[in-house]
């Protein structure tokens, strides 16, 4: 078997560094960290960091983009493993909660205070809200949810998700973002549930 080329080894090293950077920022936040601090934590040189991005600001934004991209992949995988609309909505919101769970309060606060990172979070929140709206629409069309106005349900979800992203929910309730998404999942699913007098389709659950 041929040995990996230097290009492939370099790409793998960059990927490992980015993953380690994301983990570091999730745990410690980033506003207080200098590039020297980051290099020391990742056990690499500042020169190596500059191969990833040209400045600390660019490095942070790239790490936040990577965090949400990887999270989106895992969330959609959780949805794909479910058979019914109710299971898919629950899986989506609870997978979002699980992805946000490792994020420290310091990281989330730093994102909110750093416009390039806040923009990435806002963009992903908007995309997530649209996705939940799609899933609700599928459930209503299939007869698995109440015949609620899909646009209203989607707008309600969007408003709540934006409030979570903007830290208004945390400020008002003390809930972490992951906890708020879990609460949203519970409230939404109970609100969408069919009338108990109307037989519901059996749930096939999610594939493990």
From TrEMBL:
<dbReference type="InterPro" id="IPR050109">
    <property type="entry name" value="HTH-type_TetR-like_transc_reg"/>
</dbReference>
<keyword id="KW-0805">Transcription regulation</keyword>
<dbReference type="InterPro" id="IPR036271">
    <property type="entry name" value="Tet_transcr_reg_TetR-rel_C_sf"/>
</dbReference>
<dbReference type="InterPro" id="IPR009057">
    <property type="entry name" value="Homeodomain-like_sf"/>
</dbReference>
<keyword id="KW-0804">Transcription</keyword>
<protein>
    <submittedName>
        <fullName>TetR/AcrR family transcriptional regulator</fullName>
    </submittedName>
</protein>
<keyword id="KW-0238">DNA-binding</keyword>
<feature type="domain" description="HTH tetR-type">
    <location>
        <begin position="11"/>
        <end position="71"/>
    </location>
</feature>
<dbReference type="Pfam" id="PF00440">
    <property type="entry name" value="TetR_N"/>
</dbReference>
<feature type="DNA-binding region" description="H-T-H motif">
    <location>
        <begin position="34"/>
        <end position="53"/>
    </location>
</feature>
<dbReference type="InterPro" id="IPR001647">
    <property type="entry name" value="HTH_TetR"/>
</dbReference>
